[in-house]
Amino acid sequence: MPASFATRTLNENTRFGAKPFYHEVAVEPGQHVTISANFEGPNRRCIPVAAAGQSRDALRYIGGPWVSFTAEPGTDYEVSFGTDGQGCGITARQLLADGSATPLRGERQRQRSAQTGKVDGAHLYTFLFRPGSVYYRVTGESANLELQPDAAAHADAFEGAMREIATRPGTQMCIVAPGFDYKSPLFDRLKRVLDEQAKDFPAIVEPIDSMRTAQQTEEHVRTTFMAAAEYCQVAALAAFLRKEPGAAEAL
Q: How far apart (Å, rounded) are the C-alpha atoms in residues 213 and 228?
């Protein structure tokens, strides 16, 4: 991993009792990761900044701060834990090749029924196609990411999986790809499956460049699935709310 501002300036932290350190950990691509942190010792406990203002009794049961994300191939992350003297917090950032960092993109989590624990409403699948690969999963879920090499050897299995997903009630699809005219073994199979659905099947294609422009992503920042998922939640909401039966355009 490249050295970051945080790792280069560890020795400049001279606050009383501070023992700054960092540790590199390999995470498996596609796996959902949750990281929590707290202080060591029986008499020291982290009270998250977000818990400020709660009663003393409530604070006795407050857990330490945590952050979660889905690790992606070729992407480095930096997680920081610290305190400002009044509260503490944990942050995760995407670490770039030059050692700079940018906040992680993140989609809104889906709401579940308090009685059943199930999600009501549509199931939006986000796809990110790039030359040689496709990543996908249900948007707004703390779940692992499906990673597929975009090659002919995987086309039959991928088409079967897409056919099963497309028949699930409430399925929607937001497909982020290099362009509207993009072609690849798996993209072509997905197009075949969607062509077989009803004309009002809720699916949209969004070019990567349009997404990056809308999110004001700088040129040196890698395009990630997390960015696609965040973008798709907004794009799909706008597209499917205004869509009238029979008015959808095919891919």
A: 12
